[in-house]
Specification:
Pfam families: RVT_3 (PF13456)
GO molecular function, one term: RNA-DNA hybrid ribonuclease activity
Number of strands: 9
Shape: globular
Strand order of the largest sheet: 3-2-1-4-5
Protein name: Ribonuclease HI family protein
Number of helices: 7
Structural class: alpha+beta
Organism: Candidatus Dechloromonas phosphorivorans
Oligomer: single chain
Radius of gyration: 18 Å
CATH architecture of the largest domain: 2-Layer Sandwich
Largest sheet: 5 strands, mixed
Distance between the termini: 47 Å
CATH class of the largest domain: Alpha Beta
């Protein structure tokens, strides 16, 4: 692979117990400085499921970005060795997760999934923990990319409905970035690196700022 190679890191976490509330974290970085960060709570389940879902999320982002060359890093030996065919899947519940990863894998022409020690995966670990409100060894105070369908959920809006509302607000504000109050922060609509309209920028803000923001 040459300097067109993208790199990704993923991690999963559960809150207080395993099974528990799952959080996924992932980072996708391109050769020209493109960065996609993912942090999302995904409900109850096991830590291994969270690891798989984090891998699925970052590979889906790579497919969306039309990445041709990709190296993915994670600290879950179980997930990586199962995906690479080195270990059998003894838990039937993980079979669909592995299948989905393999389906995404064939959509990327050149992809390698590699294990790294936990201490080298701090960024993805911090994102997965932030998603479920757990303190991480590596603090993060940055923006996170999330799919528009996830952003719309707190409002009971579909992605299309939320997009229309954001477009209207953007016109009112003369094209300036538009903000929406969220349960845990605010959403900013921005141009991303890929030209797709299904990703939104989410930034965590203090409660006082959240309360001051209006949907319309």
């Amino acid at each position: 692979m040459d300097n067109s190679t993208w790199h990704a890191w993923f991690d999963g976490a559960t809150k207080h117990s395993n099974p528990g509330i799952r959080g996924i974290g992932a980072v996708l970085k391109g050769p020209a400085g493109q960065i996609v960060e993912i942090a999302q709570e995904i409900g109850e389940g096991t830590n291994n499921e969270a690891e798989y879902c984090a891998l699925m999320a970052v590979m889906d982002a790579a497919v969306t970005a039309q990445v041709q060359n990709l190296i993915v890093y994670g600290d879950s030996q179980l997930v990586i060795k199962q995906v690479n065919g080195e270990w059998l899947i003894n838990a039937p519940g993980l079979v669909p997760f592995c299948k989905t990863v393999l389906e995404l894998k064939v959509l990327i022409p050149n992809v390698s999934i590699r294990w790294i020690p936990r201490e080298e995966n701090g960024e993805a670990d911090a994102l997965s923990k932030r998603a479920i409100g757990v303190a991480a060894p590596v603090p993060l105070d940055r923006s996170v990319w999330m799919k528009i369908t996830e952003i719309g959920k707190p409002f009971g809006l579909s992605g299309v409905a939320l997009g229309k509302r954001m477009d209207a607000a953007k016109l009112r504000e003369g094209g300036k970035p538009t903000q929406l109050a969220l349960e845990k922060g605010c959403a900013l609509r921005v141009e991303n690196n890929f030209g797709h309209d299904d990703f939104w920028h989410r930034k965590l803000l203090p409660a006082a700022l959240r309360e001051a923001m209006l949907l319309d």
